[in-house]
Amino acid sequence: MSVVLGLVGAALGGPALLLGGIFPGYGTLDGPTVPAPVTAAMAQADPAPETGGEVWFNDPSGASRTQYALVGRIDRAIASADPGATVRLAAYSFAMPSTAQALVDAHDRGVHVQVVVDDHSAHWAPVRLLTEALGTNTAAADFVKVCRLSCRGGRGNQHAKFLTVSAGSMGDHLVLVGSLNLTNYSSQRQWNDLYIASDRAAHAQLVRVFALMADDRPQGRLVLPETPKGFDTDLAPYSASDGGDPIKRRLARVRCHGTSLLSGNHGRTVVRIAMHAWNGGRGVALAHQIAGLHRRGCDVKVLYGVGMGRAVDTILRSSGVPVRDSNNGGRRVHHKVMVLSGVLGTQIDANYVWTGSHNWSDRSLRNDEIMFRIAGRHLVQEYLANFRRIWRAAGPG
Hints:
Layout: H1 40-44, E1 54-57, H2 64-67, H3 69-79, E2 86-91, H4 97-108, E3 112-118, H5 125-134, E4 143-147, E5 162-165, E6 174-178, H6 184-189, E7 190-191, E8 193-198, H7 200-215, E9 232-236, H8 246-252, E10 254-255, E11 270-278, H9 280-295, E12 299-308, H10 310-318, E13 323-325, E14 332-333, E15 336-344, E16 347-356, E17 369-375, H11 377-394
Helix pairs in contact: 3-4, 4-5, 8-9, 9-10
């Protein structure tokens, strides 16, 4: 698996460079530990899924190649598509010339290219270029669809960010999900993540979601089943009448003690949150839940970006939760990430990351959003390493 934190990106398909290091052990975020030996009994008692795949991170404080590492991976994935394959891209802000050109080049060599974007991007040159090359007929094999509000709802925006490639040299049934907007600002001023995997079931689900988005009409809640490898995709828009907030339900299942020897921190469940926007009434309710986990003994830390509400910040800090503004020279997290290692429901060895486009805000209930759960100790450790890197760069405060 390749991981980057200040990487060689894109066009480069060379080996990745990790800054800050991957933890060799499975203990506290604040330093490596020696991993506990895995016994046969432990292995049999561990039903937690391993989704596989790889995760990449950019570094906005680094050189251009590290800033644009994720753009490079996206462009390379598009370039890998076989003639006759289909590439589908869902984007919120799309102003990246290299990605638009990669899509046009793919179209010219016989790849079917389909793009769904939010309407604020429609007048930007890359989207105009694609519209001219692909057309706007969603019944065709190639098209650009601009959603005026959320594609599947009556309010909000098209805010989901993912790419699928049906077949190519990087793997068939490729899915790429993360927080990146296709803009210079997102690469140069924000920390972002990008998860990449080749998985038939996850690909099929995102293709279905994409087709519904391209219909651009209000639709009911779409509930997708967990895949055989443990991918779990939650989609907005939705409302309380759709069964409640999935993040609230998830947090209610977290237990702070009793982890296996392979997870958590000395028996305590580890929770790390890196969130671009966390505000509003929904944000306050989630802050109370996180504060409660901290009081009950979970090992919790929070990094936030520009959208942290004052009430949310006050609730967390007054409860003793370690919180840092991720600001480092005007660069902040754009992640929408929660990492958990420990006890979730009946699992005492749960190792999960929830990532994608979904902020902890009221607005995200109205938008087209994707919250993608990936699983596995190694992936969790890579996200923890990234969190540690940004935490230290931000400094106290």
